[in-house]
Specification:
Length: about 575
């Protein structure tokens, strides 16, 4: 992949990291002359129409967000195979990597970091988005001590695809609010829950609800108890412990009403910590103090029976007393309901798996050609689907580079699909011998190895090569060069003189034309061939409908101009010199 040019303009420079949905690469945008991050769709999802159309729609909507803490997504390249996102590039490491190395953070660093994350989340919320996947893996810490929040809002595309949903579920589970497991869509309060989980992990070095499986983690989010932060880290102020508990409350209406409200408390804590002020205040400012309940119901002198209003108040007081001694009734109901729901889900999952096709071993098809690989998979009850082609120096053209699932790593259900990447051959190829062949024969031969013949070969006199056939070539036969390179040839004009027009006099040539109308900028490249050589005289991005005028200096009485739009040849024109250049 390194060195590959995607979409005709993005040169891949370095691999960054690979996630459940995207493989990220640092690349250079040759048109805009800037570094970008390419997030290339993996897992065979490039052909999932629901998923890719969802990404396209979301990216278009995300263009309105320009907050410095939110990763910019410039565009969606859906026609490429595999498709990819073009995103803002910035140096840094994920918060997940830093947690892996440092285990936990100081209170001050934690607050400073999460405040920045919350400000980025607030920008998403103000634009009408829920992030949906706030976790340390999606927070990048830059060398300037700032953060970038990545992949905001893309959960909408994941939700459209069963395959994408399964791929991201394991990574999302540790931060998922319990109501998400009952069909609720991500929203502001589920994002606040995820921020609370992040605070907890940064301060304690562990997740509040660890588990060995997605189901076990979800069950703990729904009904498990969380260990107090102060038991794990005595340096955590009680007020901050209260903030975290409020964020990860199982009842969404007990959490903060908005991220901005949470930000207010976090910033107050951070300021108090900086200036040595007390770190305690009411973390539920909306709570009001109730009048103490009566010791006994009030009796009427006329009617010694309790007053009905006071009797009702007494019943209410008794219910409150019971809730103080044990679990509140509403919470007990939710816990019982969630437990029954979990048991039903486990039972359904068990019954569903009893009727699933059996698991089979995935055969090793790497290195085999597509036909052989398909036949091998068919013996195991599996089908093959090609997702893309990549250049590869190790595997010959048409052979399998990799498969998903991979052989020996995991098993697959009988009847399922194995997604494969097929080799397009090596990054370099050997130049074939073109001497004695016609231009048409040479063009076809070069196409087989992904090389290109120059459109305007030079004609020369030759006594030993028949007219119309190639006399010599550059580069020479047998040389190893990069694919898609251009081969220049000289073609025989037979045993007769050919005017070469070679001279040392220099002239000015002019060419002008108007670009077609359209919606996207056009990369215009103009090559000029004079009596001496071929040079690129213009290469820049222009707007549709622009008037392009070029003045170039060359040798000879005339020159040939070739015009390319987005690397595609659009026209050739030979012009006569207008003015001789004097020195």
């Amino acid at each position: 992949m390194i060195g590959t040019v995607l979409g005709g303009r993005y040169e891949v420079l370095q691999e960054a990291e690979e996630g459940p949905i995207f493989a990220s690469y640092r690349a250079r945008d040759r048109v805009a002359n800037r570094e970008v991050r390419l997030r290339i769709v993996t897992q065979g999802l490039g052909d999932d129409v629901e998923f890719t159309s969802g990404l396209k729609t979301i990216v278009e909507r995300l263009q309105v967000i320009t907050h410095p803490g939110v990763e910019r997504i410039y565009q969606w390249e859906g026609t490429n195979r595999p498709p990819f996102l073009v995103c803002e590039h910035f140096a840094g490491v994920t918060l997940e990597d830093r947690l892996r190395r440092l285990s936990s953070f100081s209170v001050s660093v934690t607050l400073a970091t999460v405040i920045q994350v919350a400000e980025a989340v607030s920008a998403l919320h103000q634009a009408g988005f829920a992030h949906g996947d706030i976790c340390p893996a999606n927070v990048i810490c830059t060398p300037q001590d700032t953060i970038k929040l990545a992949l905001g809002g893309l959960w909408e595309a994941y939700a459209r695809s069963e395959r994408a949903g399964k791929a991201v579920l394991r990574g999302m589970a540790p931060s998922m609010a319990p109501e998400l497991n009952t069909g609720t869509l991500p929203n502001q309060r589920t994002d606040i829950y995820a921020l609370g989980v992040m605070l907890y992990e940064m301060l304690s070095g562990r997740k509040p609800f660890p588990g060995d499986s997605t189901m076990a983690i979800a069950a703990k989010h729904a009904s498990g108890d969380v260990i107090s932060l102060r038991q794990l880290n005595s340096s955590v102020p009680a007020a901050l412990d209260d903030v975290v508990r409020r964020c990860i409350s199982k009842n969404p209406f007990d959490r903060y009403n908005s991220v901005d409200q949470l930000l207010g408390d976090l910033k107050m804590l951070h300021e108090n910590l900086r200036f040595g002020r007390p770190l305690a205040w009411p973390t539920k400012p909306n709570a009001v103090e109730e009048e103490p309940p009566p010791v006994a119901p009030t009796m009427s002198v006329v009617n010694p029976k309790p007053d009905p209003k006071n009797a009702a108040a007494e019943r209410k007081r008794q219910r409150k007393e019971r809730s103080r001694d044990g679990v509140p009734g509403w919470l007990a109901f939710i816990a019982i309901f969630t437990t029954l729901l979990g048991l039903a889900a486990v039972g359904g999952w068990w019954a569903f798996n009893q009727n699933k096709p059996p698991l089979v071993d995935v055969p090793n098809i790497v290195g085999k050609n597509v036909t052989e690989a398909a036949s091998e998979l068919k013996k195991s009850g599996l089908t093959l689907k090609q997702v893309r082609e990549d250049y590869n120096d190790k595997f010959g053209k048409g052979t399998i580079i990799s498969s998903d699932p991979a052989a020996g790593r995991e098993r697959a259900r009988e009847g399922s699909t194995v997604y494969v990447v097929v080799s397009r051959g090596g990054l370099t190829v050997e130049v074939p011998d073109l001497k004695g062949k016609t231009v048409a024969q040479a063009r076809a031969l070069l196409a087989e190895v992904n090389l290109v013949l120059d459109e305007n070969p030079t004609r020369v006199r030759s006594t030993d090569v028949g007219e119309g056939k190639i006399v010599n070539q550059n580069p020479s036969a047998g040389v190893q060069i990069s694919r898609d390179s251009r081969i220049n040839v000289r073609v025989s004009a037979g045993n007769r003189n050919v005017p070469t027009g070679r001279s040392t006099e220099r002239f000015l040539y002019r060419v002008a034309f108007t670009l077609p109308e359209g919606d996207s900028p056009i990369l215009v490249r103009i090559e000029m061939t004079d009596d001496r050589e071929t040079n690129t005289v213009l290469e820049e991005e222009r707007e549709p409908g622009d008037r392009v005028e070029v003045e170039a200096e060359g040798v000879g009485a005339q020159a040939t101009f070739r015009v390319y739009y987005n690397d595609e040849l659009k026209g050739t024109k030979t012009v006569k010199a207008e003015t001789e250049v004097t020195r």
